[in-house]
Amino acid sequence: MSDIKETTYFGDYMVYNYQYSYVDRGLRNIMADCNFDRNMDIILFDNPSALFIGGYPGENFKPIYWNQIDKKFSFIQSESTLSLNTISNHDLDNLFKNNLLKEKAIVILPPYYKYNVDEIKCTLSNYYTNIQDHVVSVGLYGTMLYLSMDLS
Fold first, then answer.
1. Cα separation of 11 and 2, whole Å?
2. Burial, 72: exposed, middle or buried (Cβ in 10 Å; 0-12, 13-18, 19+)?
């Protein structure tokens, strides 16, 4: 598996675990930084399955909640947890026309997808105002980007 003397090789499971813990920590930092509450949507651009932040899809859907007190995700609903309302950018027009968008929203931009932030902001400006960039620290050198905004 690993021979430090000649080369250092880390198996795929170590890379995957680091990636998972990096993304998990980044998501927790974003949710805490934006003070996520009941009046917020989470918008996922182009690839809603990139983050299973609203729950794991499929036949046996298991929702994920945000614990406001502990500042972490939970599979258990309680008085201190909030449901995560995730929506796709492809549904924004219909939701906006039917007054189904919440007062505020965030867009989480995972680092493993290449996004054109200016294009995303342009799309969002049809529905939202006060669109702001936020960068949260993840680990020693990592960061994750998210956008916050208010409904027009």
1. 8
2. middle
How far from 62 is each of 7, 84, 127, 146, CA to CA, in Å?
Answer: 42, 12, 30, 25
Per residue in 32-71, pLDDT (tens digit) is 999 999 999 999 887 655 566 665 556 666 788 899 999 9
Which tokens sit at 106? 């965030």
CA dihedral defined by 90, 128, 114, 112, rounded to 10 degrees?
-90
Band of residue 24 on the pLDDT scale cut at 50, 70, 90:
confident
Q: In angstroms, what is the C-alpha Rg of the chain?
A: 17
pTM: 0.81
- Per the CB < 8 A criterion, the answer to whether 149 and 102 are in contact is no
Type of residue at 15: V
